[in-house]
What does this fold into?
Amino acid sequence: CLFVYKQYYGLQVENAKRVEQSVISNCIFTENLSSRGVIFINLQQVHFSGINHFGANTGPSIRVIGTLISMQGTLRFWNNRNSHEGLSGTVYVASFGQILLVPPLSVEFINNTGIEGAAIVVKSPRISGGFVENIYNPVCFLQFNDTTLPPVDWKSRNVTMIFEGNVASIGPVLYISSLDACSWFKNFAPYFNLNIAETWTFMDLRRSNYVLQRGDAIDDPGRYIQTEIHSVKVEAFHMTNGLVGNSTLTVVECNENANCSSELYVNVHPGQRLSLSLTALDQYGHSTSGFLRI
It folds into this structure.
């Protein structure tokens, strides 16, 4: 199949009381324009097989809402522009959507661009309680067809994901709400680790993914994968005669509802100026973007 020069969406797959799984095989999606998603999948299971190519699309190539899709064979995402009408990510997953990896599988994200994420974006509510550090990662956005096999072993089962030349303001490889649901990576201690760039060996993070910072493209592997705001660094500077004096620093942690409220007490004198510096931090402690109300 071939979808080219389509606007709004190339293919829409939504639950219409269907039980059977939809299959997309050996298709090309190129030069389409869509804010909904070139393929928009909502509450309907879809299986990708064969060789599927997504190239030079504007807007998410695949948008998954609240359902499970599965990938097998080869999927290529090349040269897509993913900042159309506020949605980033070549593959955009929301509302606890999930992707099931079925070997043999090769997924390539090459030279995609975006703002908040270029390759994969996951927007789901942060979780707490029993689903944090849970063996088998039942609500993680990535799943394996053998649910008992930990991510550290997926590469040996012929599953690879390649990321090269992707560019975004934050998280060019993966921008995700939270990594708490994906921390299980092996079947012996230590079982959990949030640094999936090291533990998910099936992800080939090549040294050519860039973060845009003040107009410069920076190759910083520590920021290939980033999350939404998990804390805010607040620093208050006393200003006297235009000079910076003593400062007060605190880091405010945010809860699963993104509530970062706190009180910072600073002593000031009449006529003294106070300057506040606010830095939004992701789960790794790197600067990220988001909305702050002061």
